[in-house]
Amino acid sequence: MKNRIILGIIIFVMFFSLTGCVFKQESVKKRTVQSNSNAVVLYFSATGTTKKIAKKISKQMNSDIVEIVPKEKYESKDLDYNNDCRANKEQNDSKARPEIKNKIDISKYDTVYLGFPIWWGTNPKIILTLLDSYDFTGKTIIPFCTSGSSDIANSVRELREYNSKLNIKDGKRFSANASDKDITEFINSNKTDNSNEEVSGVKVLINDKEYTINLENNDTVREFVAMLPKKLTMSELNGNEKYIYLDSSLPTNSSNPKRINAGDVYLYGDNCLVIFYKSFDTSYSYTKIGHIDNLSDLGTDSISVEFKK
Description:
6-stranded parallel sheet, single chain, alpha/beta, Rossmann fold
C-alpha cells in the first residue's frame, strides 16, 4: 500500500512537470513577433521629441532603430533661436555639415524611416551630412519629422533637390503627442511589400526625353501601373501643369498637400491625371501618384507623355 502511494505521487509530479513545460512553451509562442528585418528607423533628435516618435514607429514595426549621434552634442544654449546660437549659424550656412559621431550600417535595409526635427522650416544640416556619408541608392526613404506647426513638405523638396537620385517619399509631420493610431496610419500608408514590386520600374517619356518617376505605394498607383504601357497627349493648364482625363476611374485617397512641387504627379478627382512642372501653394485636394525627378519647364503647348514599365 505504501509503495502504491509513493508511485502515485511520482506519477503526479511527472505529469505536472510535463504539462508545466507545455504551458510554458505555448506562452513563449504567443509572445513571438516576427521582426521587420528589411526596415530601419534612423533618426536625429536634439531634445528627445523625435526620439519618442522614432521609438513608437520602431516598436510597432518591430524593426531596428539607430540614432544619428552628433559628434558635438547640442546643448540648450545651442538651440536658443533668439540668440546667435550654434543651430542658427548652421542653418544659415549652406556649407555647414555637422559631424556624425557613430558609424551607421544601412547596407542590409531596403527601407529607411528617416526622422528629424524641423529647424527653420526644413531639416537640420546633420541630415545632409548623413546623405553625404552613406549610400542610400536603391533604398526607399520615408521621412518623418516633429514640429509644432511647420509641415514636412519643404524638407522633402530640399532633400530631393540635394540628391535627385534617391527615392524619397512624401513623409509625415508628427506633433510631440502623436497617438499610436497616428503612427499606425503612417506605417500602413507606407508599407513596402511584394504587392509593390510591379511599380518599381516605371519610366516616363515626355516629348521623347526620359525621366525617372518615384511612385507612391497605394492602390491608385497599382491600378494605374496595371494600365501601362500608356501613351498620352496632355493639355496645358494655368501655366504650371499638364493634364488629361483617363478613360477609366482609379481609386482615390485625396488630401490637400498645401504645396505643389515641380515634378509632382497627382490624380485630381478619380480620372484626371496631372503633371505639375512649376511649384506653388494650393488649396485643392489630390491623390499622390509620384514625383518626376529633375523635370524641366514643359512650356505652354500640349505634350506627348508615355508611361512604361
